[in-house]
């Protein structure tokens, strides 16, 4: 592999706090990312915002506005990860799908690829910039755009894909390999279709 897209859940950055981000956890994740960067891999990252906000669970805010709030949550996580990476001498760029030049570059595919080629970690913030799409969708989209060899997904409390929720069913069967069409046919809720 030459280029990877790492998808992190926002909850993974919260540590035991379950809300916000835990600086020690963010630092530990940054150290793990540095390990693969030091091996010569080009790394793009998409981070969810569920540790701050889950728009789809709001009962009072309309979906458009709720998703915009969620996009901003991903920016906060992206900036925290950028800080942790740069603190351990990993050069990064945050690119945002929503224009906010004071804190991030605008997302431009060619610029992202060039940063990767120069060995910089690129953190893609603010999702796709559109409501109704999760950061799982963003990860798939950005991976295709930067021609990543693989998408690596890290979801809190999940070590793989199961036929049902292993937290609710101790007999859940873990898949070793799984085709995309099987995920759809089985209705597995592991990520967005």
List keywords for this structure.
single chain, 193 residues, alpha/beta, 6-stranded parallel sheet, globular
Structural write-up:
This protein is an alpha/beta fold. Helix content is 36%, strand content 15%. The chain has helices at residues 23-38, 63-87, 109-117, 135-146, 180-186, and strands spanning 3-8, 42-47, 92-96, 105-106, 121-125, 150-154. Strands 4-3-5-2-1-6 form a 6-stranded parallel sheet, sandwiched between helices. Helix 1 packs across helix 2 (63-87). The chain starts with a strand and ends in a 7-residue tail after the last helix. The model has no long low-confidence stretch (mean pLDDT 92).
Topology overview:
Blueprint: E1 3-8, H1 23-38, E2 42-47, H2 63-87, E3 92-96, E4 105-106, H3 109-117, E5 121-125, H4 135-146, E6 150-154, H5 180-186
Parallel strand pairs: 1-2, 1-6, 2-5, 3-4, 3-5
Helix pairs in contact: 1-2
- What's the helix-strand series? EHEHEEHEHEH
Largest beta-sheet characterization: 6 strands, parallel
Tally the helices: what do you get?
Answer: 5
Helix content: 25-40%
- Please give the number of β-strands: 6
Average of pLDDT: 92
Parts with pLDDT < 50 across at least 5 consecutive residues: none
Shape descriptor: globular
